[in-house]
Design the sequence.
């Protein structure tokens, strides 16, 4: 039984005993006080049965009157006393009960009970998202849109309440609790058989580390994705076997360096890892040459490490750097024109406003663009709330940490094959990347495609798997047809096919499928649902492959099979 | 000394003694079994039950169940008595009296179990 029930019983002990005692006194009294009969002569007192009946309806203020006969004055006197006694007794119990319902501790117990019950009842695979800040919110929204279940633990109660107001398709259990406490993780389904992965994406690194460690010790088979910032903590996470550590600074620096070195390949990667069905990102073409880097903290270090090998000369502006020790550096914020001039803005082709202060970053970007309008401006946006400001300014490339972490989490979680595909991109030339990026952009009208994985096995593609096992030959192009009208091809690009250790990049339409094949497909979410139904439902699959409309019921299947066998015999 | 334990022990033993007082005597003779004793035993037994509400310990749970048994037996006895006197109009015939007293005898057994558990609990206590 749950603890809320015991808590109610425990708190109600005294009121219940008070009511019992008051009832007992009233009933005993009534059985002792003599009554009166119709002629005014003394009559025996009420029996226990009648006394209990009378007290029951009087105490609950129902009041039927004097039953079975009119009372004597002595009885009336006793009844007056017992009325006041019983009303006080009942009021006391009810007030205690109401106070208990409003009690913070009690309500907390109720919320925790409800949360853990809802988590226990989850039937589909789900993800455990720790923290629902800017990053967590983006992840939750995307998981919801792509139809994945998830559970949220968030420290801030207000955020959890906001989450209730958000219009999620799925019913999401959310708990306001500290994720670094292992008990809360267990409540949220850490040992649930359907839990797929844990995402530790809080802003606090120590919490992420605690979550990663707790998961590793309590349920080692689960995948953990953690957000890290400083090298020491990321190293600690790695030593605990955290599956993926996402450092938004390092990731953005890699992206920017790639955008300089191989813009077309970067464009392709950007399309593939973008959050599904969001507006297409602007193409970025950062120039080579000399750049100015404002802010030389952790983010600045990562950028310098990645951009210098890509062939970019950097001059650094930072309020805390020492020009004596660091070559090519200037002490200052970069928000003033003279510092920028000193850093050589006339010769520069790009500037990075990368401090941890959003207002300063905007100020740097605006000042620099005024001094030299042709400059390529990269701005770092630290907080989601400042999104409208950065959008209004329109830097050439804006870096939003929460978005980078969210994108990477979604890409890792929903499509394990994507990493393999991205690895294969390294030895492809720019023309190839450009062609594929063009095909991907054409898939959705102005929206990024969803990239998703599919395995031709019994659980993910039942009908197709059965058909393949029965020796039917199905080519890849044959299943990529619209399930409502098979003359229309499904707008989808098959990026990769994995058969055991073999990887086939962009398999052609006439490629024959085999059971157990893993596919990586880019398409709209609607096309995703369409194809899933085709591969799951035998009659849909039959229609898509042959054009025959099969009735779905079991009886008609059986009749059809019978007709076939008797036909063979005759 | 724990005041809660004193109060609970008091009510458990009082329920048993009151019930014993009602139970003792020839089973079919109404003049040997006073109705007030039955009522007192019922009230005290109800209080003893309420005292164990929300106790999550193993022994507390067994106390709760035995005193619930005693309550049910005593309520059944009281209803039997009320039906015989007020509803069927049969009055306290020897057969009705025997069933009331035997029901209270069942409750007495549950009370004795409670008392035994109480004694065991006390003996196991080492402080």
Sequence:
């Amino acid at each position: 039984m749950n603890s809320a029930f015991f808590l109610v019983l425990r708190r109600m002990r005294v009121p219940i005993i008070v009511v019992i005692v008051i009832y007992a006194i009233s009933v005993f009294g009534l059985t002792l006080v003599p009554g009166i009969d119709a002629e005014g002569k003394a009559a025996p007192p009420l029996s226990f049965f009648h006394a209990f009946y009378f007290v029951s309806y009087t105490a609950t203020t129902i009041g039927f009157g004097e039953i079975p006969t009119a009372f004597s004055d002595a009885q009336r006197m006793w009844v007056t006393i017992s009325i006041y006694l019983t009303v006080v007794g009942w009021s006391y119990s009810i007030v205690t009960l109401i106070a208990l319902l409003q009690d913070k501790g009690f309500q907390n117990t109720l919320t925790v009970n409800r949360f853990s019950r809802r988590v226990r009842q989850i039937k589909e695979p789900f993800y455990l998202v720790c923290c629902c800040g800017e990053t967590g919110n983006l992840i939750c929204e995307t998981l919801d849109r792509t139809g994945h279940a998830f559970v949220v633990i968030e420290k801030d109660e207000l955020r959890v309440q906001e989450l209730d107001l958000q219009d999620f398709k799925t019913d999401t259990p959310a708990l306001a609790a500290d994720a670094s406490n292992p008990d809360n993780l267990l409540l949220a389904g850490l040992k649930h058989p359907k839990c797929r992965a844990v995402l530790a994406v809080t802003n606090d690194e120590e919490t992420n580390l605690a979550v990663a460690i707790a998961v590793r010790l309590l349920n080692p088979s689960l995948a953990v994705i953690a957000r890290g910032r400083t090298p020491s903590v990321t190293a600690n996470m790695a030593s605990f076997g955290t599956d993926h550590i996402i450092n938004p600074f390092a990731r953005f620096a890699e992206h920017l360096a790639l955008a300089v070195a191989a813009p077309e390949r970067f464009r392709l990667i950007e399309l593939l890892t973008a959050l599904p069905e969001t507006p297409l990102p602007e193409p970025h073409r950062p120039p080579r040459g000399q750049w100015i880097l404002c802010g030389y903290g952790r983010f600045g270090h990562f950028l310098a490490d990645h951009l210098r090998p890509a062939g970019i000369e950097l001059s650094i502006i930072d309020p805390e750097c020492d020009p004596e020790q660091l070559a090519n550096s200037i002490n200052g914020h970069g928000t003033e024109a003279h510092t920028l001039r000193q850093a050589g803005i006339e010769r520069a082709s790009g500037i990075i406003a990368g401090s941890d202060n959003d207002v300063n970053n905007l100020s740097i970007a605006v000042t620099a663009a005024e001094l030299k309008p042709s400059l390529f401006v990269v701005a770092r946006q630290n907080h989601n709330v400042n999104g409208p400001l950065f959008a209004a300014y329109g830097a050439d490339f804006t870096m939003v940490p929460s978005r980078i972490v969210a994108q990477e989490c979604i890409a890792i979680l929903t499509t394990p094959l994507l990493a393999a595909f991205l690895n294969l991109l390294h030895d492809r030339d720019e023309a190839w990347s450009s062609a594929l990026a063009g095909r991907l952009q054409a898939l959705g009208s102005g929206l990024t495609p969803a990239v998703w994985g599919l395995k031709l096995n019994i659980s993910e593609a039942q009908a197709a798997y059965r058909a393949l096992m029965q020796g039917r030959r199905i080519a890849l192009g044959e299943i990529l047809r619209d399930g409502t009208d098979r003359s229309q091809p499904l707008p989808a690009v098959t990026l990769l096919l994995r058969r055991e250790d073999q990887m086939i990049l962009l398999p052609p339409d006439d490629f024959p499928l085999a059971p157990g094949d893993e596919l990586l497909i880019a398409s709209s979410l609607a096309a995703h649902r369409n194809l899933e139904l085709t591969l799951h439902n035998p009659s849909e699959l039959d229609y898509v492959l042959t054009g025959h409309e099969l009735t779905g019921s079991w009886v008609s299947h059986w009749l059809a099979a019978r007709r076939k066998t008797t036909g063979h015999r005759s | 000394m724990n005041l809660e334990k004193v109060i609970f022990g008091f009510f458990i033993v009082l329920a048993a003694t009151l019930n014993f007082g009602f139970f003792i005597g020839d089973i079919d003779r109404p003049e040997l079994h006073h109705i007030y004793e039955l009522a007192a035993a019922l009230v005290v037994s109800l209080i003893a039950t309420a005292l164990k509400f929300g106790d999550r310990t193993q022994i507390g749970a067994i106390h709760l169940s035995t005193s619930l048994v005693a309550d049910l037996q005593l309520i059944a006895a009281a209803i039997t008595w009320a039906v015989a006197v007020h509803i069927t109009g049969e009055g306290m015939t020897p057969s009705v009296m025997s069933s009331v007293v035997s029901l209270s005898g069942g409750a007495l057994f549950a009370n004795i179990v409670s008392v035994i558990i109480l004694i065991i609990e006390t003996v196991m206590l080492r402080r």
About this structure: Chain A touches chain B at residues 6-13, 16-17, 20-21, 23-24, 27-28, 31, 47-50 (CB under 8 Å). The CA atoms of residues 179 and 396 of chain A lie 37 Å apart. The mean pLDDT of chain A is 84. The first helix of chain A runs from residue 3 to 32.
